[in-house]
Write a structure and sequence with these properties.
Layout: H1 229-233, H2 245-250
Length: 262
């Protein structure tokens, strides 16, 4: 089946488990409920394909074209999607846990309520993407582009967001407890009511970030850039966070409070 033209086909419920479909054309086909477990779909054309409720667990989808595909409720557990084009794709409620998405393009995709627990999204393009209520706990998002993405109420606990681009990103009520945000760009980000307990924001750019009612207990803000007193004091437990000595003085914190964990 490698390289075969199956475009515009009706293949609902078909079984392609472990088949070699590399570089196959499946564009505009109806593949809902289809089984692709452990299949080889490297470089396949799945543009505008209906993959609703499809089983793609363990499938190899490196460099596949999934532009505009419907992957709602699909199972992509352990799938390999590095370098895949998922721009404009619908991944609502899909299971992408432990998936390799290194360098994948999700520009303007819908990832609402998607399970991305433990996935590798290093250097992925997620700009403008809807990730509301998504599970991204312990996911690798280092160097990822999340500019203007919607991450409201998203679970990012323990996530690696080092050097991530989060410019004007909506993180309202997001769970960032224990997240690594070192040197991330959070310029203009909305962090209202976000949980940032024990999060590491050292060296992050926080120019114009909104921390209103965010929980900063034991957060590390040492070396943070463009941080103002007004920003910090709009948050909760700000006096329990870690700051540079000179900024602590500006906040009115005494030397006795230097150990932010007490």
């Amino acid at each position: 089946l490698s390289g075969e033209d199956l475009g515009d086909a009706y293949l609902v419920g078909a079984d392609f488990s472990a088949k070699n479909l590399s570089r196959a054309n499946l564009s505009n086909s109806d593949l809902s409920y289809t089984k692709f477990g452990d299949a080889n779909l490297v470089g396949a054309n799945l543009n505008e394909t209906n993959l609703w409720n499809a089983d793609l667990s363990g499938a190899k989808l490196r460099d596949a074209n999934l532009n505009g595909a419907n992957l709602s409720s699909a199972n992509l557990w352990r799938a390999i999607l590095s370098g895949a084009d998922l721009s404009g794709a619908n991944l609502n409620n899909a299971n992408l846990s432990s998936t390799n998405l290194n360098g994948a393009n999700f520009n303007n995709a819908n990832l609402n309520s998607t399970n991305l627990n433990g996935s590798n999204l290093n250097n992925a393009n997620l700009s403008g993407t809807n990730l509301s209520r998504t599970n991204l706990s312990i996911a690798n998002l280092s160097d990822a582009n999340l500019n203007q993405a919607n991450l409201s109420r998203t679970n990012l606990s323990g996530a690696d967001l080092r050097k991530a681009k989060l410019n004007v990103t909506n993180l309202d009520q997001a769970n960032l407890s224990g997240a690594d945000l070192r040197e991330a760009n959070l310029s203009g980000a909305v962090l209202k009511q976000a949980k940032l307990t024990v999060a590491d924001l050292s060296g992050a750019n926080l120019d114009g970030a909104n921390f209103s009612d965010a929980n900063l207990r034991e957060a590390n803000l040492s070396g943070a850039k463009n941080l103002t007193i007004e920003q910090i004091k709009s948050a909760k437990n700000w006096e329990k966070a870690k700051y540079d000595p000179d900024f602590r003085t500006k906040l009115g914190l005494t030397p006795e409070n230097e150990d932010y964990r007490n």
